[in-house]
Amino acid sequence: MHMNKPLNIAIAGLGTVGGGTFKILQENAGLLEARCGRAIHIVAVSARDKNKKRAINIAEVKWVDSPADLLTLPDVDVIVELIGGSEGVAKLLVEEAFKAGKHVVTANKALIAHHGLSLAKLAEAKGAAFGYEAAVAGGIPVIKTLREGLTANRFHAITGILNGTCNFILTSMMESGQDFATALAQAQHIGYAEADPSFDIDGIDTAHKLTILTSLAYGCPPDIHAVKIEGIRHITARDIVFADKLGYVIKLLGISTRTEQGILQRVHPCMVSKLSTIGRVAGAYNGIIIEGSSVGRLTLEGQGAGEGPTASSVISDIADIARGIICKPFGIPVAAIADIPRVPIDTLRTSYYVRLAVIDKPGVLASITAIFSEENISLREFQQYPQGNDQPVQVVLITHETLEFAMLKALESVSKLNSVLEPAHMIRIEAL
Amino acid sequence: MHMNKPLNIAIAGLGTVGGGTFKILQENAGLLEARCGRAIHIVAVSARDKNKKRAINIAEVKWVDSPADLLTLPDVDVIVELIGGSEGVAKLLVEEAFKAGKHVVTANKALIAHHGLSLAKLAEAKGAAFGYEAAVAGGIPVIKTLREGLTANRFHAITGILNGTCNFILTSMMESGQDFATALAQAQHIGYAEADPSFDIDGIDTAHKLTILTSLAYGCPPDIHAVKIEGIRHITARDIVFADKLGYVIKLLGISTRTEQGILQRVHPCMVSKLSTIGRVAGAYNGIIIEGSSVGRLTLEGQGAGEGPTASSVISDIADIARGIICKPFGIPVAAIADIPRVPIDTLRTSYYVRLAVIDKPGVLASITAIFSEENISLREFQQYPQGNDQPVQVVLITHETLEFAMLKALESVSKLNSVLEPAHMIRIEAL
Questions:
Q1: Which end of chain A is less congested by CB atoms within 10 angstroms, N or C?
Q2: Chain A residues touching B324 at Cβ < 8 A
C-alpha cells in the first residue's frame, strides 16, 4: 500500500477549520494512508498572515501569499478552500481550481448556496470532485448520507437544527431563564457567537445549509432566495417559559418538504415536543431528520461546528478523493438538475402558538376568538396568564392545524384590536 | 447518461428483504439511473420456490433454481446474497462469487461475523466490492459512516441498540407493564419476533452486528467469540418499574470500547437515562453512538429492520458499485487488519443496579452492605420495597462506579446469604 502515488493537497485558509485540518492530517497520517491506500501530503498552504502564531508547524510546507498562487504549483491535486465567503477570493479560487482540473474540498456553505450550480458545472466538465461535507452540520456526514447512503430513496422532508450558535442561545435561555440579549452576549463572550451575529441569529446560515440539503435531496438547483427566513431575535424568555408549560422547547429549524405541489423551504423558530429526538438536541449540537421513501425516518445528531468536527468532514472529503470516490456534486449530473416548483409558505398547514398582551377587561377574549373563528381557525388550547400590577394579561393560544394564510390574516386583525397592546407573537409548532 | 453500460445484478433470496430490493429497484429505476449514471438491471433471481405468490412480478427476469447457477450466467456483475445463515448455501455462493470476480452485496451479519476476514481476502484479491450495509442496523448507513464519512477519526467507542426485536419487547414491557414472556409472545404474534426467538433475545444477533462495527472501527478481524453476550430473558417487569423510578430505561446494548489496554466487546441489558438520546430510541428502532477523535459524539437513529429500510441499504451498496465506489471491505487492506488485545469484562468499571429478594428481619441489610463494603464497592442509592403479604422485601442497590470483578465476587457472596432468597439480579448502568 506504500506504492501508490500520494494525494497532494493545498490548503487555503488556516483559521480554526484550516488549522484543525492541517493538524489532524499530520497526527493521523499513518491511519489515513492505511485507510486510503495512499498518503495524503500537504504540499502548500496560504493564509492572510504568514507570521501569525499558530498551534501547527507550517515550516515544512510551502507557503504562498496569494491563494491563487496555489494553482500555479505543479503537483497539487486538491485545493482545500477554507477562506469562506460567497464572493471574492474564495469563489475565484474554486472556479480557477476547477478550470485547472483540480479537485476542490470546501466548508463554504454561502458559496454553494449562491453559486453551487455553476461550480458543479465546472467540476463536472473536468470530472473533478467537489466535496462540501463540512459546509453543513459540522462533523455530521449528512452530505454523504443523502448522496450515497440513501441512494435508493425519494425524499419527502429534511428537518434540521443546523446552526449551533442559535441552538446554544436557545438552550441557554431555556436553562437559565435569560432573555435573548443576555444569552447572545454570553455566547459571544465564550466564542460561540460572532461580534456581528446576524448571519447566525437571523437564520441566514441555516438557510444556506438548508438550500444545499434541498438540492441534494430533490435534485433542484440551490436557491437561497426560495427560502422563507425568520431568525430568533424576537424569541422572548416569556415564550420559552410558556412553551415549557405546554411541553415544548423552541428550536430554530430549517425545514424543506417536497409534495406533489413542489418544494417548501423555510427557516424559523419552532416549538417541538421536549421529548422528541430533535427537542433534545441541546447546546451547540446539530440534529437532522431525513425522511425517505424506503428508509423511513433517519435522525443524525452531532457537533455542528468547531475545529475537530468540521475538520473531520473536510478530511473525509479529501480521503474520498484519495480513494477514488468521486460523485457528482449534487448526486446527479448537472444536466439532470431541474427546477421544481416552489410552494409559498402561505400554503403551509401546521398548528400555531400565539401570544398576545391584552388589556384585562370584559369582551376582549370574545373579540379575539371571534377573529380566529372568522378565519376558520379552531383553538386547541387557551390560557390566560395575569401578570398583576396593572401589567397586561398574557394570553396564549394553541391552534389546531390550520393554513398559514388564514393565520397571518387573523394575526393582522387581532393585532389591530385596541385591547391588544403589542403585535401578536406567533411561533409555528412542528409535530416531530 | 444513457450511454453507460448497465450494472447487471442477480438476487439470491426473495424473502422480505429480497422482495423489497426487487420492488424498489423497479419502482425507482429512473431515479437510480440518474443518480448512478447508469441503469441497474436485475438479470436473474433465485429463491426456494418459483411458484410462491409474491407481491413482485418476476416473470421478466431469468429464474434459476440453484443460487450457484447465478454464477454461470454470462453477464452478472453483482451477486446480491439475501439467503442468510453463516454457513452452507450463502457462504458458498459468496465465496464462489468472489472467485469468479463478481461483486457481492449482502445483508448477512452472521456470515460476516464468522467469516468476514476470509471473505474480505477473496474480495480484495479480485478488487471486488463487498457491500454489507444492510447487515447492521437496517436502514441506518452506519457502515458507510464509519468507513467513509468519518475517515479522519480514531474511534474510542461504538454503542448501539442494534436489535429491533429486543428493543420492541423492552419498550412494550415498559409501556404496558407486561412481563417478558407476554411481551415476547405479542412480538411473535405481530411478526416482530420469530418462532424461535433465541438469536434475537439471547443477544447473538446484536453480537454479530457489534463484531462487524468493531472490525470497521478499529481495524481488527471480526471475532464473535470475543464478545461477552447476555440476553434479555431475565429482565423482569419489576426491574423495569424500579429502573423507571430511578430515571432509567432498560435497553439491550452492544458496546465496543477501545482503550490502551485493548478492545472490550459486550452485549447485555443496560440501564440508561430515560432522557438520553439512546434511552429515547423506542420500539423497533435502532440507535448507534459513535465516538471519534475529531468528530466527538455522533448519534444515528432509524429503523433497524423491515423491508423498506433494509432494502434501502442493500440498494445503496449496489448503487455504490454502479458509481464505481469500491472500498476495502473493512476500510483498510486485509494485510493491515491486525489482532488487537481483547480486554475481559472483569476489568469493566461502571455502576450497577442490584436487586435482591430478602427476608424482612433485623440484620439482613447489615450483612448485605458488609459484603459490598468488603469488596470496596460503595453504594450510591439504597431502596427497600416491602411487598406485603409475607412476600420477600425487594431491595434495590445502585453502586458508584466499581470494578466488574469485585461486583461479581460480591454478588456471589450475597446470593449465598440465607436471608437472600433468589440469585441477585444485576443490570449494568451506562452513563450515556
A1: N
A2: 324
Query: Smallest CA–CA separation between A315 and chain B, in Å?
Result: 6
Q: Is the complex ipTM more than 0.90? A: yes
Instruction: Name the residue in chain B with its Cα closest to that of A40.
Output: B152
**Helix (H) or strand (E) run with residue B313 in it:** helix B307-322
Whether B295 sits inside 8 A of A315 (CB atoms) is: no
Chain B interface test: which of A2, A289, A295 (most B C-beta within 10 Å): A295
Angle at B431 between CA B430 and CA B432, to 5 degrees: 100
Q: Which residues contact A133 (CB under 8 A, 6 or more apart)?
A: A141, A142, A143, A144, A313, A314, A316, A317, B149
Query: What is chain B's mean pLDDT, rounded?
Result: 95
List the domains of chain B with CATH numbers: 7-135 (3.40.50.720), 148-303 (3.30.360.10), 346-429 (3.30.70.260)
CA of A141: which chain B residue's CA is closest?
B149
Question: pLDDT, tens digit, for every residue of B232-283?
Answer: 999 999 999 999 999 999 999 999 999 999 999 999 999 999 999 999 999 9
Q: Concatenated DSSP letters for A181-237?
A: HHHHHHHHHTTSS-SS-HHHHTSHHHHHHHHHHHHHHH-----GGGEEE--STT--H
pLDDT in tens, B148-205: 999 999 999 999 999 999 999 999 999 999 999 999 999 999 988 888 999 999 999 9
Q: Do the Cβ atoms of B308 and A300 come within 8 Å?
A: no
Q: What is the rounded CA–CA span in Å between residue B97 and residue B72?
A: 10
Per-residue pLDDT tens for A202-241?
999 999 999 999 999 999 999 999 999 999 999 999 999 9
- Residues of chain A contacting B314 with CB distance shorter than 8 Å: 152
